[in-house]
Amino acid sequence: MAKTPSDHLLSTLEELVPYDFEKFKFKLQNTSVQKEHSRIPRSQIQRARPVKMATLLVTYYGEEYAVQLTLQVLRAINQRLLAEELHRAAIQGRPPDTAASPRCHAQEGDPVDGTCVRDSCSFPEAVSGHPQASGSRSPGCPRCQDSHERKSPGSLSPQPLPQCKRHLKQVQLLFCEDHDEPICLICSLSQEHQGHRVRPIEEVALEHKKKIQKQLEHLKKLRKSGEEQRSYGEEKAVSFLKQTEALKQRVQRKLEQVYYFLEQQEHFFVASLEDVGQMVGQIRKAYDTRVSQDIALLDALIGELEAKECQSEWELLQDIGDILHRAKTVPVPEKWTTPQEIKQKIQLLHQKSEFVEKSTKYFSETLRSEMEMFNDHSPQHGLGSWEERIIPQHSMQGPKQGVPCLFLVVRTV
Q1: Beta bridge partners of 176
Q2: Where are the bilayer-spanning segments (predicted)?
């Protein structure tokens, strides 16, 4: 089944690495479109992935203009190889009556040496990418260009080797490490590169691939470490939350025995425990955010390096120094550390929880004893004087000094 322009458009967008795809979306937002077309909303462009982006382009602009606009943006972000492949695929996928210029047909429009001989040939510039005035010969005419490529022996090569810009027909098979650029044999013998470190480009590319592999292993180890630290931090935070919840329930069960007398004190204690729980939750959330950012950065660098590793030698060496530098200097994911304040609060809550239990027990026993004494000796007395008799004088001295003062204890939690 023959591919449609939409298929070629999607394949081209999927060829872009994440960084270049973000550049494509940014440039697309700032590229003028024909008046009869409406712009794609920025919010949809920013969230789109390749499949969604191809769908948006075809939906808003139609297949033909979507391809033209994509070619324009690809050339603007210096993705000329992808643009040329898309252009060639779009031309080959056109029907015979539309693939050629409307005025370039048989006999009158036969191509000679790759150029349409018909003076009125005017294939649109947006498709060919070659500026031309009406009435001029069109090297961008699809039929002429296709015929010229079939006649040219060089068109059989799947990917032509980069030619030296200074010395025609010289292939750049060497790499100057002093200038950090590919050169041809004639360049290496020139005065400009005399005494420089010049090596075969395959050898240099292989060396950089080894460096990429080394950095990939390093980054993946860092990422694994970050995942382990995040998991450990999650476990610790959950453990603290469970301890806090257990303490809350434990204290609530004890305070239920004297609830009508200590309702306010129970509220203070529970609120303190929940504050600690919220603090742990906030610390966990902040930590997870920081580690996730570090991991996201590592993912981005891994993606760039993996993409570089699959590129040809010449493409691989473009910006390789910057990528390797960023890989070497990427920050290590932050390790989970339990704040000292949390440790102290948890420890303090444990201590005060035990104290509350002892105080509640003593308070309940003392209250029961005092109430029984009231019932036996002064049945006419109600509860109005219990606060005056709940703390006997001897309770403020000796080993149990201050234990019945639950009201004071709980308010300080």
Answers
A1: 181, 198
A2: none
